[in-house]
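hey can u check if this looks right to u? its 128 residues, i copy pasted from the old doc so theres a chance i mangled smth
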Amino acid sequence: VQLVESGGGLVQAGESLRLSCAGSGFHFDDYAIGWVRQAPGKEREGVSCFSTSDGYTYYADSVKGRFTISTYNAKNTVYLQMNSLKPEDTAVYYCRYIEGIDSCQLFGGSIDPDFGSWGQGTQVTVSS
């Protein structure tokens, strides 16, 4: 599995960005794909996830109402539309892929970096 992120950058508070993750090498129909972020000095945090088995979507409380996840299945691509960005959204954003049904559960709580496949990350910086 390969995941390649793009779309990060430097924006001012209140502005928007859209992240993209192009995936390849997926062998199963049921999987979860989404975004995890890590700010300097902080633990990784699950931001959002989409489950192909039932269309379930997960959002961290900190981004609900501001971020939207979407997919383009024909090209195994997932997007994260980020609106009303805040300085606390500053982090490296990683695309993550986990095989299996109900795998979006693994985007909440403590993130195990050894579980699933990861992209190289893209930096998002929001200035105040």
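The CA atoms of residues 3 and 23 lie 5 Å apart.
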